[in-house]
Structure formats: structure tokens, C-alpha cells
Amino acid sequence: MNIDRYPEIPPKNKFIKKAYVAIMLWIVGRAMQAASRVDSVVKEEFSHLRDNFLLRLWVAPNGPSMFVGKDKNGKVKYMGWNPRGKKTTLDMQIKGIEQAVLMFTFQESTARATSNDRLIVSGDLDDACSVVRILDIVEVFLLPKIITSLAVKRYPKWSQMSPLRKYIGRILVYIRAFTV
Amino acid sequence: MQLPESYVFFSQPKINSGKNALEHIYVELASMDARKPLVLASRQVAEQGLTKKFIKSLYDSNVIIGSLYEEVYPYHYACISQLNDLAELFRARGCDSIIAIGGGSVVDLAKGVNIAVSNEGSVMDYAGENVLRKRLKPFVYVSTGQCGGTETSNEAYIENRRFVSDFLFPDVIVLDNRMITSLTRQRAAEAAMVALTAAIESCAVPYNNPMNDLYANVAINFIYENLHGVVKKPKITHGNLALANAYAMAGIAFSNIPPGIVYSLGIAIARDTGLPRGKCMGCLLPLSLEYRVMKHESIRSELLYALLGIEGYCRVPEKDRTQTSIAILRQFVNDLGDILPKSLKDMHVSRYKFEEYSRMASEMSKKRVSQQDCMQLLDIAWEGIA
């Protein structure tokens, strides 16, 4: 057998998909920071989390990532993408770039992705549940109903989130996320 | 359902089914500390462009394909010379795992290569039951919707010799929509018959094994509900995926029992004549159930439950359940029309060889089925009338 006929095949990169997911992670990270200052429910969810809380949401094995955590003053902050020097308390790993694309193009909700075994969570389960709830609220703020209803398990009813809270929150989250 | 006094059930594979299942492979390999697989595929798989899809699914991962070998002939037996060449390729490239894409001989060959690279000496030294004593390299099976009966089970056929060991189970079974191809009507029916035989025979044993029954019943139900749809419209993705799931489950269930009369005879005839196993088993399966009723042997009523679900099962009075399930099964096979031959005579099987087939089948089933029963069943199947 001529072994040279069957060469090694190294994996290529998916730059466009990676770039898309990186941008989405940046937006979500910034929006989480903004929502923690604007919305009382998000603020309360974060208040239950420990003081040194640091979330890493990233795409395995070497895809984009984002860090959101509490700083020394207890304020929620988007802490960029670089893992160097950071000690995460909650690590949410999306198994691959294709899985991440499914989630961030809203073809699959977070709950559906979890049930389809696309996420690996290391850390406190309570914290993970809080983060999923926060992500759901942030998505409601960021996106129109028609898209958000694909991304969250249940779109909040009027009794759960009044239109006033939603629209004012949306404007403030957008302003804070992209300016401050 | 009653809990038996004792039972044993073993299933090694992790099944990964559905959308984007291929993209999970690198995670599964990483969990087994592997990152350089040898990939085997048949020519047919390569021609259909499935290997390209597979390679794309590994983009942006840490997995380097050690080598891609796409020259396995489908529907042939795995041969030792090709196996030895591949073992050499595996070692030369420093691979640490094996991925098989396809069905039948590809998987048998992959299992054979795995034995060769994980053990010393010749592969043929490990032929037989439970001769292997050592865990093999990680092995991932990517289904393309074919079923030769051994893909997801603990057995392999190399050079016409049977290898059985729990170490031969795949570690991961991947059933992805993109890889499940539409087979021809003929191939689809044959594959389904192999799986249906495996499933029915694994839950038709007189003692019940609750875990085995679960796998087998789901497999029977998936085949019953989806086969006719797939035969009519071979490109139904959902139906093909359901059948691939059924094949995987049937293989696992079947690994936990010794082969039954239809499976053993089907293999014996196929080995000798070169006919597809599915054809032989499809002809023998309904007749074997009728033969058992003729002999006043009991057939568990759970078969009807598997075929019709809880509502259909409850609608039939208890005393009629066995007969109804046989009638439904007979109708199910008949509805496939001329795809499957109705008798051994139609398949031009030599009648004078029946004794030899019976002996082979009896040996394969560890004497669980007698030669006499095999002979009688073959005689009935010759004309195809019970």
C-alpha cells in the first residue's frame, strides 16, 4: 500500500461563522452589563450571585468567548474575551462553532440547545439557571418578539413584563450597550 | 411486565442522533483522549459526497484526520489483506482512533483494523466468541442508513469468520440527517428486514429482559411505522433517520442474546449463496413465527405492543394477540410487494444444501435452535407457505 496516497487532513477554519458568533457574544456581553443597570429583575438576579462571580460563555475548542462578572465594587461588567488572568466561577461551553451558530441565529433556544447536548456547564447549577434567565431577558430587550420567541423558552406575557418596561428597557439597553 | 429473577444487559455505544450530530464527534473523541482518527468509508459513500460533508463537520476542531481511506467495496466481505494494509496505515500515521462511515463491510473492516492495532498477532487469532481480552481503540460509527446487522452490535464478520466480543461495540454511534442517504427500495427493505429480524428475535426469547425489550420494541415500532413510507418515497429524511435509529437499537438489543433461528439461517444462506442477508431473513421471518405457533410455542404478546403501540394493543383481546401480531407482520412484509421474494425457491437457493445450512445455523446459535427445527423451517420456506 502506498501510504502517501492517503495524506493527513488537518481541519480548516470557519472564519465567517466565528466572526459572527464573536460579534454576537460581544453584543450579548455588553447588553448583560447594560441590563444589570437598567432592569430591576436582571439586577436582582445578579444580586443573588456570589461577589467574585465570573461567567465565561465560549465556543469550544478554540472559538470566541466572552466574560461577564462582578468587579470589586459588585457592579456587573463585560470583561472582554481574553481568558488570561481570569478565574471563572461559571463556565458555559458551547460544544462547537456549528452549535453556536444554531443558537445565535435563533434556530435553537438555550433550553433546546441544552436538551440537545450542545452545552457543557461547569460550576454552580443555581448560577447557570440565573444566567439562562438573565440571557432570556436580555434577548427580549435586544430583539423583536418574532425572533425572541424562537430564542427563549417562553416569551414573557404582559403580566410578566409590561410593554412600558420592555420598550424603555430596550432603548436604555441599546444606548448603554453601544455607548457607555 | 414482570421483573425477571435475573437478567444481564450491556450496551457500550453512546448514540448521537439528529441535527448537527456530526459536529459532536470531536467532543466524543476528546472525551476518549483521541484526536487523530483513521477514517474508513466505502466508494459509494465517497461518490455521494458524504466524506466531504464529514470532513467539513470537523472544521474548527482539534481533530486531524490521520488518513481517509475511501476504497472499501460496499456489500462485500471484509478481507484480511485490506485489513492488514489499513492497520499498517494506522500505525504509520500515528492514529489513535477509528471512524467508519457507511455500513456492512466498512464497519466489519474497521472493527478488524481495531483488533489488529490494539492486539498482537494475527487478527484471525481472535475469531470466535469472547476471545478478545483487551479494550480496543476508540471507535466511532457514522451511519449512512445501511444495515448489515453487525454495525452497532458486538460482532463482526471478517473473511467469513465471526468475531464476537463486547469490545467490538462502537463507542459512539452518529446518526446525522446529512449522512443518512436514501437507499434504493430494494436495499431499504433488505436493511429493514435484517434489523426487524434482530429486534423480533431479541424480544421473542421466552425469558424477558426488560432492557432488551425496550430497545427491541422501539426498533420494531420505528421500522413498522416508517419502512413503507421510505420505500414509497426514499428521500423522506425523517423516515430514513427513524430507520437508522431502529437499526442502531436492534443491533444493541441483538448483541445481548444468542442469534435466533431466522438470523442464523439468514446468515448461513447468505454466506453460502452471496444473496443479501435481508432478502433471506425477510423470507424466513413471518414463516418462523407461524412455524412456532404450529409447534404450540408461545410468542410473547409484547410483539403486538411493539407493532401497534398501546392503543392498538389494548383493542385486541388477549387470546388473539399472538395471531394478530403474526398476521400484521405477514401483511407488513407482503405489502412490500415484489421487493422481497416470497420463497427460497424464488431465490434459487439449493435445496440439497438445507442440511448444511441447518447445521451452520444451529452451531451459530449455540444449539439454541435445533437442526431439526431449521430443516423444517427451510422446507416450509422453500414453497413459502406455512
Can you characterise this structure?
The complex is a heterodimer of chains A (180) and B (386). With 180 residues, chain A is α+β, with helices and mostly antiparallel strands. Chain A has helices spanning 15-38, 40-47, 97-104, 110-115, 125-142, 145-151, 163-179; strands spanning 54-59, 65-70, 76-78, 90-94, 119-123. Chain A has a single domain, classed as Nonspecific Lipid-transfer Protein, Chain A. In chain A, strand 2 and strand 3 form a beta hairpin. The N and C termini of chain A lie far apart (64 Å). The mean pLDDT of chain A is 90. Chain B has two domains: 14-175, 3-Layer(aba) Sandwich (Rossmann fold); 185-383, Dehydroquinate synthase-like, alpha domain (Up-down Bundle), CATH 1.20.1090. In chain B, 49% of the residues lie in helices and 10% in strands. Chain B has 14 helices and nine strands. In chain B, the strands form two sheets. Chain B has a six-stranded parallel sheet, with helices on both faces. In chain B, a hairpin with a 2-residue loop joins strand 7 and strand 8 (161-164). The model of chain B has no long low-confidence stretch (mean pLDDT 89). Chains A and B meet through helix 3 of A and helix 1, strand 3 and helix 4 of B.
What is the topological layout?
The complex is a heterodimer of chains A (180) and B (386).
Chain A: H1 15-38, H2 40-47, E1 54-59, E2 65-70, E3 76-78, E4 90-94, H3 97-104, H4 110-115, E5 119-123, H5 125-142, H6 145-151, H7 163-179
Parallel strand pairs in A: 1-4
Antiparallel strand pairs in A: 1-2, 2-3, 4-5
Chain B: E1 14-17, H1 25-31, E2 37-42, H2 43-47, H3 50-57, E3 67-72, H4 80-92, E4 97-101, H5 105-118, E5 128-129, E6 139-142, E7 155-158, E8 161-164, E9 172-175, H6 185-203, H7 210-232, H8 237-255, H9 261-273, H10 277-294, H11 302-315, H12 321-334, H13 354-364, H14 371-383
Parallel strand pairs in B: 1-9, 2-3, 2-4, 4-6, 5-8, 6-9
Antiparallel strand pairs in B: 7-8
Helix pairs in contact in B: 4-5, 6-7, 6-8, 6-10, 7-8, 7-11, 9-10, 9-13, 10-12, 10-14, 11-12, 13-14
